[in-house]
Sequence to fold (168 residues):
Amino acid sequence: MSLYTTLIRSVPTITSLAVRLNTTKVGLASVARLSCPVMQTLSSRALSCSSLLRNKEFFTITYELGGGGKHTVQAKDGDNLLDIAINNDIDIDGFGACEGTLACSTCHVVFTEEDFAKLDEEATDEELDMLDLAFALTDTSRLGCQVCMSKELDGITVLVPEGVNDQR
Fold:
């Protein structure tokens, strides 16, 4: 369980405890009121980040594996294709070995011509150097760690080549 989840779950309990202490006719109530003045106004809403998550749009992407499998998943706006595959537990052998540090070509994906034209950024020189080492390189190849989801890419299908050429 994450620290954030633990904190959010405990805040209502702490707040209600402080309220109970303040309403009880016990001498400690005044001590609790003095030592924890924030508790009277603290709410779980103040610590919530759900509004930030709601503002992110979700899009669909399909990973077509070289071995024949297909995985259609939801992706948040701004997430790169490597993180999307990892976050959705798509089991691709060797995919993203450098964890997105642009030090290998294991997250190599191939786009259709139509989808490749939708990409808003061109590959950098560093990405092109890594792509030169990729297995089954094509003119529409990119590294998944360098391509971020956007509204324009909603519904695309990327091919993950069957082989991996990890030259780290």
